[in-house]
């Protein structure tokens, strides 16, 4: 969060872009885009302790604050003119001005929060509530949630998170086209909150069911009643809300009821009494039940509120300042003789190295060190210091690859990726290729199992294209669900998650197309050899719709079943049909072992057919790539 930059540039010149000119003005606020606001300081000081401090400092730098100022002090603020203008309307007795876009509204709130303007924050929230309620559609709601997380606005984050949970279920499939709206970290917090809400709902709704829905649904006769004497279908409906809060919806409720009534009508019998068909006409009972259910759900959401974490909790600007001045003198852990430069890690560890080594390994350092050093630059023992943003562990690994010493081997693939990223940043091409070679040789760790997901996220974020492609392909061997991603989701940028999902879908489509070519019985289709089985499956050729052709039932089932599974299980199962198909072929053929025709074909060309199927599937999977990293700026 940027803090106000104060500059005591006094002015009494006529002001350009004057947006606010209040009587009795004794200071001028200047926005980052050069808009001016002439205001009495007392209003600002009284409404914001933070701005109060800034104004006092600015005034002091101009001289005695109590003396009648000849010129008005100008206080520079990092916000835009539009945001400051809106903010001031909530401090002065004028008509409040609310920005027009959700982005600006959230920014306004975050600025008021940053300057600790408690009353203004309340007024802004009141104005928003009066002017526009939450959007009805999912996409803008997700967008608002993302903004609330970005600006650290808790009430807005809670309000939108609740609306999202009541609108849709939480699987990757459901988020499909909305994955790039927010970074993985915000999405992760939403999923954690969802888990919490569901746990609380489970306990609250169980009590609700045990109380016969607080007595609102009693006296109905139904073929099946729950232990608390409410119809079973209704009991199941309430249970389903525990798993997916978005089922709390009148359309869902009516659908569940209609299904039950239709089932009963289909199996009507004298002994089975069911009054449920009369429920829709009892609007009062339904309304009471729905209100009772709604209040239980409200209560559960309220209990879950403390469990929604913000990715960017509001930070006290003072804390940032304290952090900035905290410096510690570093232990000297890396020392080479005749060093003539120091590189300092982000955690203040100094590495004494040679300029010549740095410039040979890195054109970046070559350029940097060729520039004249500013006269006030820091030096230790007469050696110039270059501060880098990498931590000491990473620099240790990097420096060890520049000198003929034992290479410091990273202890995880994640660290290998950060090392590669540093090489990318500093243009250390040959060091980068040695690291890649070490990974290939198995000297450096490679990603294992579901580690491929965080590896993809990091490699994508750092623009390491080969690592990103390899990791993406490896993720196909695992289901891709929010549960599998777990905390690793926080490493993802929204676009990276979207791209990985689209990559997975393209691989799935390729598999389906490949299976289709094997379901085709016309020559030159490879399955043509199987035509002639006395126990075939009738299918229509896609290329010759008038002719009827036959594929043995076992083979047809094997291919069609896999094709169908691919449609519905692309996220919940690994996409690894190429490695399973041979085993499945043999199992299916064994179950058809009484057919002499198929056994004959298998003996003649079964293995070749199987190998071709396997190869084609592997090929279509390998030819797909995640593609260009457009949004990573590469
Ligand atoms: Zn019934
Ligand atoms: Zn057969």
From TrEMBL:
<protein>
    <recommendedName>
        <fullName>BTB domain-containing protein</fullName>
    </recommendedName>
</protein>
<dbReference type="InterPro" id="IPR000210">
    <property type="entry name" value="BTB/POZ_dom"/>
</dbReference>
<dbReference type="Pfam" id="PF00651">
    <property type="entry name" value="BTB"/>
</dbReference>
<dbReference type="InterPro" id="IPR011333">
    <property type="entry name" value="SKP1/BTB/POZ_sf"/>
</dbReference>
<feature type="domain" description="BTB">
    <location>
        <begin position="337"/>
        <end position="411"/>
    </location>
</feature>
């Amino acid at each position: 969060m940027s803090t106000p930059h104060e500059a005591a540039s006094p002015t009494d010149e006529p002001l350009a872009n004057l947006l606010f000119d209040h009587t009795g003005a004794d200071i001028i606020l200047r926005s980052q885009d050069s808009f001016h606001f002439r205001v009495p300081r007392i209003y600002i000081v009284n409404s914001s302790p933070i701005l109060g401090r800034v104004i006092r400092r600015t005034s002091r730098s101009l001289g005695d604050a109590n003396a009648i100022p000849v010129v008005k002090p100008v206080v520079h603020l990092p916000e835009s003119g539009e945001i400051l203008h809106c903010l001031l309307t909530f401090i002065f007795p004028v008509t409040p001005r609310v920005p027009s876009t959700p982005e600006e509204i959230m920014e306004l709130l975050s600025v008021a929060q940053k300057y600790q303007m408690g009353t203004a924050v309340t007024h802004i929230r009141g104005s928003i509530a009066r002017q526009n309620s939450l959007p009805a559609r999912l996409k803008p709601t997700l967008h608002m949630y993302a903004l609330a997380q970005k600006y650290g606005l808790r009430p807005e984050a809670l309000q939108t998170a609740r609306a999202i949970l009541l609108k849709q279920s939480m699987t990757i499939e459901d988020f499909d086209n909305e994955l790039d709206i927010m970074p993985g970290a915000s999405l992760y917090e939403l999923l954690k909150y969802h888990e919490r809400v569901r746990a609380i709902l489970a306990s609250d709704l169980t009590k609700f069911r045990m109380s016969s829905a607080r007595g609102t649904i009693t006296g109905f006769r139904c073929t099946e009643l729950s232990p608390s004497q409410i119809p079973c279908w209704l009991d199941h409906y309430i249970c389903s809300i525990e798993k997916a809060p978005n089922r709390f919806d009148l359309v869902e409720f009516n659908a569940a009821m209609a299904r039950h009534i239709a089932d009963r009508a289909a199996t009507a019998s004298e002994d089975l009494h069911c009054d449920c068909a009369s429920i829709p006409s009892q609007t009062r009972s339904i309304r009471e039940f729905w209100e009772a259910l709604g209040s239980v759900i409200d209560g559960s959401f309220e209990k879950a509120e403390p469990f929604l974490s913000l990715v960017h909790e509001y930070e006290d600007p003072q804390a940032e300042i304290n952090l900035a001045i905290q410096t510690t003198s570093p232990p000297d852990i890396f020392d080479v003789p005749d060093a003539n430069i120091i590189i300092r890690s982000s955690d203040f560890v100094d590495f004494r190295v040679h300029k010549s080594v740095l410039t040979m390994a890195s054109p970046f350092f070559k350029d940097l060190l060729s520039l004249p050093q500013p006269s006030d630059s820091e030096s230790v023992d007469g050696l110039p210091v270059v501060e880098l943003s990498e931590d000491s562990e990473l620099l240790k690994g990097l420096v060890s690859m520049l000198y003929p010493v034992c290479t410091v081997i990273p202890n995880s693939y994640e660290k290998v990726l950060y090392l590669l990223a540093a090489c990318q940043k500093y243009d250390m091409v040959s060091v980068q290729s040695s690291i890649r070679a070490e990974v290939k040789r198995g000297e450096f760790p490679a990603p294992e199992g579901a580690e491929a997901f965080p590896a993809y996220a990091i490699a994508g974020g750092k623009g390491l294209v080969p690592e990103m492609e390899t990791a993406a392909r490896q993720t196909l061997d695992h289901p891709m669900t929010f549960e599998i991603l777990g905390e690793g989701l926080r490493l993802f940028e929204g676009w990276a998650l979207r791209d990985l999902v689209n990559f997975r879908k393209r691989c799935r489509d390729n598999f389906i197309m490949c299976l289709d070519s094997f379901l085709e019985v016309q020559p030159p289709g490879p399955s043509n050899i199987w035509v002639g089985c006395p126990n075939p499956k009738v299918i229509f050729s896609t290329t010759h719709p008038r002719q009827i052709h036959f594929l043995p039932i076992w083979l047809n089932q094997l291919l069609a079943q896999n094709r169908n599974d691919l449609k519905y299980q692309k996220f919940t199962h690994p996409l690894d049909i190429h490695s399973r198909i041979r085993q499945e072929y043999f199992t299916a053929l064994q179950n058809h072992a009484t057919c002499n025709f198929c056994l004959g074909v298998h003996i003649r060309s079964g293995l070749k057919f199987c190998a071709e199927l396997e190869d084609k599937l592997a090929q279509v999977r390998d030819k797909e790539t995640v593609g260009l990293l457009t949004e990573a700026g590469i």
